[in-house]
Every structure is written in C-alpha cells, then in structure tokens.
Amino acid sequence: MADFTFHHGGVSVPSLDDAIDWYGRVLGFELERSFYITEARSKTAMVRKGQLRFELFEVEDAAPLPDERRHPPSDIRTHGNKHVAFRIADLDAFLDEMRAKDADIAFVVRQAYGAGCFIRDCAGNLIEFVEEPAA
Question: VOC domain: which residues (predicted)?
Fold first, then answer.
C-alpha cells in the first residue's frame, strides 16, 4: 500500500482577504503563500498552523454555499466532501474561546460516543472540532 500523510483541506470562499483574516483571527492560521490558478480563475492562498494547512479559493463567478450545506445534519444528505475535523482537548473551553471571537457555532453534540462541535467559517463552510472521550 502506498504511504501518504494529510497535506491540506480546501474551501471556496467569496472573499480571499476576508477568509485569510478569519482563519487567522479565529483559528490562528498564518498566510503561507498566495497565488493565482489560471485554469480555475481563482485567487488562492495557503494558510498554515503548524502542520495543518487550508487552501482558500476565491473563484470568479462562484455560486454561494447553499443553505442546506450550512447545517451538519442536512449537509450529509448530499453526497460529496463534508468537512474537516480537528481534535481538541476541552470542548467547553474551545466553545468559550469561539464565543469570545464571535465565531458562528453551527452545532454542538454531546453523546456517549464523544463530544464536539461544528463552526462555520466566514463563507459558511463547516469545520468540526472533536473532544475524544478519555481512554
């Protein structure tokens, strides 16, 4: 089997500058590089936090995110990529931090199998944060 590791997730946004600001201010990502993808007609940026990366695309004439893609239970009813998820140590502390930064908290779940939340970025894209139960 081929060996590979995770490199990045990608999201389309209406404003590259707003997204670079949001990912930096809310989640602590820093701009790694900006470039233009001619074939996609996309102003593009790679933001990074440690080994984590997001590729942000501002594509000419892109359609906005449909409403049903903004809520986790309805989003999974459409095939395709859904979200990326990050591990956090303490869900309550994370939620407090997100509220202090006026982040758009989309969904919180606390079940026997684990706890977590989804937030929406400045374009409505879902990002999951998971607190794994103690072993």
Answer: 5-132
